[in-house]
Design brief:
ten-stranded mixed sheet, 10 helices, single chain, alpha/beta, 10 strands
Length: 309
Protein backbone atom coordinates (compact mmCIF):
# COMPACT_ATOMS: atom_id res chain seq x y z
CA UNK A 1 0.00 0.00 0.00
CA UNK A 2 3.01 2.31 0.13
CA UNK A 3 2.48 3.41 -3.47
CA UNK A 4 -1.15 4.38 -2.89
CA UNK A 5 -1.53 7.86 -1.55
CA UNK A 6 -4.34 10.33 -1.00
CA UNK A 7 -1.95 13.29 -1.07
CA UNK A 8 -1.64 13.83 -3.95
CA UNK A 9 -4.60 11.58 -4.72
CA UNK A 10 -4.46 9.53 -7.91
CA UNK A 11 -6.34 6.49 -6.62
CA UNK A 12 -8.86 6.44 -9.47
CA UNK A 13 -8.73 7.08 -13.23
CA UNK A 14 -9.69 10.75 -12.73
CA UNK A 15 -6.30 11.41 -11.12
CA UNK A 16 -7.42 14.64 -9.45
CA UNK A 17 -3.97 15.11 -7.88
CA UNK A 18 -5.44 16.95 -4.87
CA UNK A 19 -3.86 16.87 -1.42
CA UNK A 20 -6.63 15.34 0.66
CA UNK A 21 -4.60 15.39 3.87
CA UNK A 22 -4.62 19.18 3.60
CA UNK A 23 -8.41 19.28 3.27
CA UNK A 24 -8.56 19.43 -0.52
CA UNK A 25 -11.22 17.37 -2.27
CA UNK A 26 -11.38 16.04 -5.79
CA UNK A 27 -14.20 14.59 -7.85
CA UNK A 28 -15.19 12.16 -5.08
CA UNK A 29 -15.55 15.13 -2.69
CA UNK A 30 -13.64 13.31 0.04
CA UNK A 31 -10.80 14.57 2.21
CA UNK A 32 -8.51 12.35 4.29
CA UNK A 33 -11.27 11.13 6.61
CA UNK A 34 -13.31 7.96 6.05
CA UNK A 35 -17.04 8.64 5.95
CA UNK A 36 -19.68 5.91 6.13
CA UNK A 37 -23.41 6.37 5.58
CA UNK A 38 -24.67 3.02 6.82
CA UNK A 39 -23.40 -0.23 8.32
CA UNK A 40 -25.97 -3.01 8.65
CA UNK A 41 -27.09 -6.45 7.53
CA UNK A 42 -28.42 -6.14 3.99
CA UNK A 43 -30.75 -8.66 2.32
CA UNK A 44 -30.95 -7.20 -1.19
CA UNK A 45 -27.73 -8.33 -2.80
CA UNK A 46 -27.39 -11.37 -5.07
CA UNK A 47 -28.50 -14.64 -3.37
CA UNK A 48 -24.92 -15.91 -3.03
CA UNK A 49 -23.94 -12.69 -1.25
CA UNK A 50 -26.91 -11.95 1.05
CA UNK A 51 -28.22 -15.49 1.55
CA UNK A 52 -30.48 -15.93 4.56
CA UNK A 53 -28.17 -14.17 7.02
CA UNK A 54 -27.67 -10.89 5.20
CA UNK A 55 -24.53 -9.26 3.89
CA UNK A 56 -22.59 -7.10 6.34
CA UNK A 57 -22.65 -3.97 4.23
CA UNK A 58 -20.73 -0.79 4.89
CA UNK A 59 -21.83 2.03 2.60
CA UNK A 60 -19.07 4.60 2.14
CA UNK A 61 -19.90 8.24 1.44
CA UNK A 62 -18.71 9.95 -1.73
CA UNK A 63 -18.03 8.43 -5.14
CA UNK A 64 -15.53 8.88 -7.96
CA UNK A 65 -18.20 8.30 -10.63
CA UNK A 66 -21.47 9.95 -9.46
CA UNK A 67 -23.73 8.78 -12.31
CA UNK A 68 -26.66 11.11 -12.97
CA UNK A 69 -29.11 8.27 -12.27
CA UNK A 70 -27.43 6.95 -9.10
CA UNK A 71 -29.90 5.44 -6.64
CA UNK A 72 -27.54 6.26 -3.79
CA UNK A 73 -27.13 9.89 -4.80
CA UNK A 74 -27.66 11.05 -1.19
CA UNK A 75 -24.29 9.63 -0.25
CA UNK A 76 -22.55 9.63 -3.63
CA UNK A 77 -22.31 13.40 -3.48
CA UNK A 78 -20.52 13.13 -0.16
CA UNK A 79 -23.16 15.03 1.79
CA UNK A 80 -24.26 12.25 4.13
CA UNK A 81 -22.38 10.11 6.58
CA UNK A 82 -20.26 10.01 9.68
CA UNK A 83 -16.48 10.14 9.92
CA UNK A 84 -14.90 7.03 11.43
CA UNK A 85 -11.32 6.15 12.26
CA UNK A 86 -9.55 3.13 10.82
CA UNK A 87 -9.75 1.55 14.26
CA UNK A 88 -13.50 2.15 14.49
CA UNK A 89 -14.05 0.77 10.98
CA UNK A 90 -12.25 -2.43 11.98
CA UNK A 91 -14.55 -2.73 14.99
CA UNK A 92 -17.61 -2.26 12.78
CA UNK A 93 -16.47 -5.20 10.65
CA UNK A 94 -16.16 -7.34 13.76
CA UNK A 95 -19.56 -6.21 15.06
CA UNK A 96 -21.20 -7.17 11.77
CA UNK A 97 -19.53 -10.57 12.00
CA UNK A 98 -20.92 -10.99 15.52
CA UNK A 99 -24.41 -10.14 14.21
CA UNK A 100 -24.21 -13.13 11.86
CA UNK A 101 -23.28 -11.43 8.58
CA UNK A 102 -22.42 -13.75 5.70
CA UNK A 103 -19.56 -11.48 4.63
CA UNK A 104 -18.18 -7.96 4.93
CA UNK A 105 -19.45 -5.97 1.97
CA UNK A 106 -17.53 -2.77 1.17
CA UNK A 107 -19.84 -0.57 -0.93
CA UNK A 108 -18.13 2.12 -3.04
CA UNK A 109 -14.81 2.01 -1.15
CA UNK A 110 -12.52 3.04 -4.04
CA UNK A 111 -11.57 6.49 -2.73
CA UNK A 112 -10.80 5.12 0.75
CA UNK A 113 -8.69 2.10 -0.27
CA UNK A 114 -5.58 2.78 1.87
CA UNK A 115 -7.60 3.22 5.05
CA UNK A 116 -10.04 0.42 4.28
CA UNK A 117 -7.19 -2.04 3.71
CA UNK A 118 -5.65 -1.09 7.05
CA UNK A 119 -9.02 -1.62 8.73
CA UNK A 120 -9.50 -5.06 7.15
CA UNK A 121 -6.02 -6.16 8.21
CA UNK A 122 -6.61 -4.84 11.72
CA UNK A 123 -9.96 -6.67 11.94
CA UNK A 124 -8.38 -9.92 10.72
CA UNK A 125 -5.77 -9.67 13.46
CA UNK A 126 -8.67 -9.40 15.93
CA UNK A 127 -10.66 -12.36 14.61
CA UNK A 128 -12.38 -11.41 11.35
CA UNK A 129 -12.84 -14.60 9.31
CA UNK A 130 -15.64 -13.62 6.89
CA UNK A 131 -15.07 -13.21 3.15
CA UNK A 132 -14.53 -9.58 2.16
CA UNK A 133 -16.59 -8.27 -0.78
CA UNK A 134 -15.38 -5.31 -2.83
CA UNK A 135 -18.58 -3.77 -4.21
CA UNK A 136 -17.64 -1.09 -6.72
CA UNK A 137 -18.56 0.83 -9.87
CA UNK A 138 -15.86 -0.75 -12.02
CA UNK A 139 -14.21 2.63 -12.58
CA UNK A 140 -10.88 1.77 -11.01
CA UNK A 141 -7.17 1.57 -11.76
CA UNK A 142 -5.50 -1.78 -12.29
CA UNK A 143 -2.76 -1.08 -9.78
CA UNK A 144 -5.28 -0.21 -7.07
CA UNK A 145 -7.18 -3.45 -7.66
CA UNK A 146 -3.89 -5.36 -7.59
CA UNK A 147 -3.14 -3.86 -4.17
CA UNK A 148 -6.20 -5.73 -2.85
CA UNK A 149 -4.52 -9.11 -3.32
CA UNK A 150 -4.97 -11.10 -0.11
CA UNK A 151 -7.45 -8.53 1.21
CA UNK A 152 -10.54 -9.05 -0.96
CA UNK A 153 -12.14 -12.45 -1.59
CA UNK A 154 -15.08 -11.46 -3.80
CA UNK A 155 -15.33 -8.68 -6.36
CA UNK A 156 -18.90 -7.49 -6.95
CA UNK A 157 -18.31 -4.97 -9.69
CA UNK A 158 -20.46 -2.96 -12.06
CA UNK A 159 -19.74 -2.89 -15.75
CA UNK A 160 -21.90 0.03 -16.78
CA UNK A 161 -20.82 0.99 -20.28
CA UNK A 162 -19.11 -0.28 -23.39
CA UNK A 163 -20.08 2.96 -25.13
CA UNK A 164 -17.73 5.88 -24.27
CA UNK A 165 -20.39 8.40 -25.32
CA UNK A 166 -22.86 7.04 -22.77
CA UNK A 167 -20.15 6.96 -20.12
CA UNK A 168 -19.38 10.60 -20.84
CA UNK A 169 -23.03 11.67 -20.84
CA UNK A 170 -24.18 9.88 -17.70
CA UNK A 171 -20.97 9.61 -15.66
CA UNK A 172 -18.58 12.26 -17.07
CA UNK A 173 -16.13 9.41 -17.68
CA UNK A 174 -15.54 8.69 -21.38
CA UNK A 175 -12.64 6.44 -20.38
CA UNK A 176 -14.95 4.19 -18.34
CA UNK A 177 -14.99 1.25 -20.82
CA UNK A 178 -11.19 1.04 -20.92
CA UNK A 179 -10.85 1.47 -17.16
CA UNK A 180 -13.54 -1.15 -16.45
CA UNK A 181 -11.92 -3.69 -18.77
CA UNK A 182 -8.52 -3.22 -17.10
CA UNK A 183 -9.98 -3.34 -13.59
CA UNK A 184 -12.04 -6.46 -14.29
CA UNK A 185 -9.06 -8.22 -15.80
CA UNK A 186 -7.06 -7.61 -12.62
CA UNK A 187 -9.99 -8.68 -10.42
CA UNK A 188 -10.14 -12.01 -12.24
CA UNK A 189 -6.36 -12.32 -12.22
CA UNK A 190 -5.85 -11.90 -8.48
CA UNK A 191 -8.99 -13.84 -7.52
CA UNK A 192 -8.54 -16.89 -9.72
CA UNK A 193 -5.01 -17.22 -11.05
CA UNK A 194 -3.19 -18.24 -7.89
CA UNK A 195 -5.93 -20.47 -6.53
CA UNK A 196 -5.91 -24.25 -6.64
CA UNK A 197 -9.67 -24.36 -6.17
CA UNK A 198 -12.30 -24.43 -8.86
CA UNK A 199 -13.58 -20.90 -9.26
CA UNK A 200 -15.88 -19.39 -8.22
CA UNK A 201 -15.79 -21.05 -4.80
CA UNK A 202 -19.01 -21.61 -2.82
CA UNK A 203 -19.67 -23.13 0.58
CA UNK A 204 -22.15 -25.93 1.27
CA UNK A 205 -25.03 -23.44 1.60
CA UNK A 206 -24.39 -21.81 -1.79
CA UNK A 207 -22.72 -18.69 -0.44
CA UNK A 208 -19.82 -17.41 -2.52
CA UNK A 209 -16.50 -17.51 -0.72
CA UNK A 210 -14.26 -16.41 -3.57
CA UNK A 211 -15.03 -15.18 -7.07
CA UNK A 212 -16.11 -12.35 -9.33
CA UNK A 213 -19.63 -11.14 -10.10
CA UNK A 214 -20.20 -8.53 -12.82
CA UNK A 215 -23.34 -6.44 -12.49
CA UNK A 216 -24.99 -4.57 -15.31
CA UNK A 217 -27.92 -2.22 -14.73
CA UNK A 218 -30.05 -2.02 -17.86
CA UNK A 219 -30.89 1.62 -18.62
CA UNK A 220 -34.09 2.53 -20.49
CA UNK A 221 -33.48 2.61 -24.23
CA UNK A 222 -29.97 1.17 -24.02
CA UNK A 223 -30.29 -2.52 -24.88
CA UNK A 224 -27.39 -2.25 -27.34
CA UNK A 225 -25.00 -1.11 -24.60
CA UNK A 226 -26.19 -3.97 -22.37
CA UNK A 227 -25.66 -6.55 -25.10
CA UNK A 228 -22.15 -5.25 -25.75
CA UNK A 229 -21.26 -5.52 -22.06
CA UNK A 230 -22.61 -9.06 -21.84
CA UNK A 231 -20.83 -10.15 -24.98
CA UNK A 232 -17.49 -8.72 -23.86
CA UNK A 233 -17.60 -10.25 -20.39
CA UNK A 234 -18.75 -13.68 -21.57
CA UNK A 235 -16.43 -13.92 -24.57
CA UNK A 236 -13.49 -12.86 -22.38
CA UNK A 237 -14.15 -14.86 -19.19
CA UNK A 238 -16.85 -17.41 -19.99
CA UNK A 239 -18.80 -18.80 -17.06
CA UNK A 240 -15.92 -18.29 -14.61
CA UNK A 241 -17.39 -14.83 -13.98
CA UNK A 242 -21.00 -14.63 -12.82
CA UNK A 243 -23.31 -12.09 -14.44
CA UNK A 244 -25.98 -10.15 -12.56
CA UNK A 245 -28.39 -8.47 -14.97
CA UNK A 246 -30.51 -5.90 -13.16
CA UNK A 247 -33.83 -4.33 -14.14
CA UNK A 248 -34.11 -2.08 -11.07
CA UNK A 249 -33.35 1.27 -12.70
CA UNK A 250 -35.35 3.88 -10.78
CA UNK A 251 -36.52 7.03 -12.66
CA UNK A 252 -36.11 9.70 -10.01
CA UNK A 253 -38.14 12.89 -10.32
CA UNK A 254 -34.99 14.97 -10.73
CA UNK A 255 -34.40 13.36 -14.15
CA UNK A 256 -37.92 13.20 -15.60
CA UNK A 257 -37.99 16.80 -16.79
CA UNK A 258 -34.27 17.29 -17.28
CA UNK A 259 -33.71 18.43 -20.88
CA UNK A 260 -30.51 16.42 -21.26
CA UNK A 261 -31.65 13.18 -19.63
CA UNK A 262 -35.30 12.90 -20.60
CA UNK A 263 -34.81 9.36 -21.85
CA UNK A 264 -34.06 8.31 -18.27
CA UNK A 265 -37.47 9.46 -17.06
CA UNK A 266 -39.10 6.02 -17.27
CA UNK A 267 -38.59 2.50 -15.99
CA UNK A 268 -37.10 -0.27 -18.09
CA UNK A 269 -39.94 -2.17 -19.75
CA UNK A 270 -40.48 -5.88 -19.27
CA UNK A 271 -39.96 -6.37 -22.99
CA UNK A 272 -36.62 -4.52 -22.93
CA UNK A 273 -35.33 -6.56 -20.04
CA UNK A 274 -36.51 -9.90 -21.39
CA UNK A 275 -34.88 -9.21 -24.75
CA UNK A 276 -31.51 -8.68 -23.04
CA UNK A 277 -32.01 -11.83 -20.95
CA UNK A 278 -32.77 -13.75 -24.15
CA UNK A 279 -29.58 -12.36 -25.68
CA UNK A 280 -27.58 -13.59 -22.68
CA UNK A 281 -29.08 -17.06 -23.06
CA UNK A 282 -28.32 -17.08 -26.80
CA UNK A 283 -24.70 -16.17 -26.02
CA UNK A 284 -24.48 -19.27 -23.86
CA UNK A 285 -24.33 -17.58 -20.46
CA UNK A 286 -25.42 -20.01 -17.75
CA UNK A 287 -23.97 -18.50 -14.54
CA UNK A 288 -26.23 -15.50 -14.15
CA UNK A 289 -28.70 -13.80 -11.86
CA UNK A 290 -31.80 -12.11 -13.25
CA UNK A 291 -34.51 -10.16 -11.49
CA UNK A 292 -38.26 -10.80 -11.52
CA UNK A 293 -41.03 -8.37 -10.79
CA UNK A 294 -40.96 -4.65 -10.08
CA UNK A 295 -37.65 -3.92 -8.38
CA UNK A 296 -37.53 -0.33 -9.64
CA UNK A 297 -38.87 1.22 -6.47
CA UNK A 298 -37.28 3.63 -4.05
CA UNK A 299 -38.32 1.30 -1.22
CA UNK A 300 -35.46 -0.96 -2.31
CA UNK A 301 -32.97 1.81 -1.46
CA UNK A 302 -31.78 1.57 2.16
CA UNK A 303 -31.98 4.60 4.44
CA UNK A 304 -28.54 6.13 4.85
CA UNK A 305 -28.78 6.78 8.56
CA UNK A 306 -25.38 5.45 9.72
CA UNK A 307 -27.09 2.86 11.90
CA UNK A 308 -25.86 -0.62 12.68
CA UNK A 309 -28.45 -3.35 13.14
Amino acid sequence: MDKLSISPCNLCPRECNVRREEGQTGYCRSDDRIFIARAALHMWEEPCISGKKGSGTVFFSGCNLRCVYCQNYEIAAGGRGKAVSVERLAQIFLELQKQGAANINLVTPDHYVPGVVRAVLMAKEQGLVLPVVYNCSGYAKREVIKSLTGIVDIFLTDFKYMDPALAAKYSAAPDYPDAAREALDEMVNITYKESDENMPLFDETGMMQRGVIVRHLLLPGHKKNAREVLRYVYETYGDSVYISLMNQYTPFDRLRDHPEYGELGRKVTKREYESVVDYAIDLGITNAYIQDGDTARESFIPPFDVRKE
